[in-house]
Amino acid sequence: MKLLVTGGAGFIGSNFILYWLNNYPQDKIINLDKLTYAGNLENLKKVEKNSNYTFVKGNICDAEFIEGVIREIDVIVHFAAESHVDRSIREPSDFVMTNVVGTQVLLDAALKNGVKRFHHISTDEVFGSLNLNDSSKFNERTNYNPRSPYSASKASADHLVRVYYYTYNLPITITNCSNNFGSYQFPEKFIPLAITNILENKKVPVYGDGLYIRDWLYVEDHVRAIDLVLEKGKIGETYLIGGMLNNISNIDIVKKILKFMDKDEDYIEFVKDRPGHDRRYSVDWSKIKSELGWQPKYDFEIWLEKTIDWYKENEDWWKKIKTGEYSKYYQEQYGQT
Ligand code: NAD
Ligand code: TYD
């Protein structure tokens, strides 16, 4: 089988490629990535010499370029996106371009070239925000209600993917997953930002009252779920993927990280809240569990400790990022270095 992975130099895409070539060494993968600030080929060092792996630098919005790489592709796994909510609030246009227009360009190319499966990676953020004090969860029937430029662009992309199925019979599947964490996550996102700041002896910025809740999914559990959807998922269907059974607030996550790292709570710094900050996400992942037999391998705490260890052992990887262009963003976002 020949797969085109878009955004394969990013966090989840690179974890997917490493997993796939390990489990299906006979398959061929083309990794198509624009290498924005979030794309990092160092994530793929383990496979760069593998003859079944090819990297192609390019933009998913460029239809002519896509035509050149899509021939003889069986499956597209579409990760490429602008993915950070805070950046989308500062500068929405790149989000609309890549996440909406780029997805439509890929869908067109997939249709013209008879691709057998277009799998689209989306987010639970398209469903909006849940109340803090009830037990409601998102499921496959929840209405869309995006509330940030990022989630609005992902929602638009999801609609387009479904339209290509209903209108043109393109064989699609969609997964909407919750917040991922694990190895190779860019340290602008909450968990790696917290871990690496503590390793640098810096404070951890916690937005607002810190009582916001996300549904945390370990990246390896996520890529296993995508594998199952590619193998056994029904064409035209959507599957939600989450990692938690209980709610945990951002502040409690920082406290857990500090405890695992043997540090006191002086590292916590409450900072200005994010505008339009969604209160709570929680995913009902019973459909993928009952239909495809998926569930997270371990509890959140076990994966969190493993993630802390990864960042401790891979200082070279994240230090390069934190001293580069990212330090300017950090200064602008948090007003500190
Ligand atoms: P990421 O930001 O780490 O990586 C995105 C990758 O896409 C980068 O390598 C970047 O260079 C590439 N890219 C961006 N614009 C491109 C373009 N125009 N053409 C080609 N490549 C381009 O993102 P991630 O965290 O790995 O997320 C991957 C996917 O999963 C995204 O679609 C995101 O919306 C979705 N998702 C992520 C999370 C999460 O917690 N990280 C949660 C839910 C859904
Ligand atoms: P983030 O990792 O940006 O993911 P998303 O916004 O897509 O959920 O943020 C996760 C949660 O952590 C979210 O509630 C915002 C909060 N947060 C902080 O409190 N401080 C930070 O510095 C960041 C980046 C996020």
Furnish the topology, listing elements before pairings.
Elements: E1 2-6, H1 11-23, E2 28-33, E3 53-57, H2 63-70, E4 75-78, H3 85-90, H4 93-112, E5 117-123, H5 149-168, E6 172-177, E7 179-181, H6 190-199, E8 204-207, E9 216-218, H7 219-232, E10 238-241, H8 250-260, E11 268-271, H9 286-292, H10 300-313, H11 315-323, H12 326-334
Parallel strand pairs: 1-2, 1-4, 2-3, 4-5, 5-6, 6-10, 7-9, 8-11
Helix pairs in contact: 1-7, 2-4, 4-5, 6-8, 6-10
Nicotinamide-adenine-dinucleotide binds at residues 6-7, 9-13, 33-36, 38-39, 59-61, 79-83, 98, 102, 121, 123, 154, 177, 179-180, 186.
DSSP strand (E) fraction? 15-25%
* Biggest sheet character: 7 strands, parallel
CATH superfamily of the largest domain: NAD(P)-binding Rossmann-like Domain
Please, what is the oligomeric state? single chain
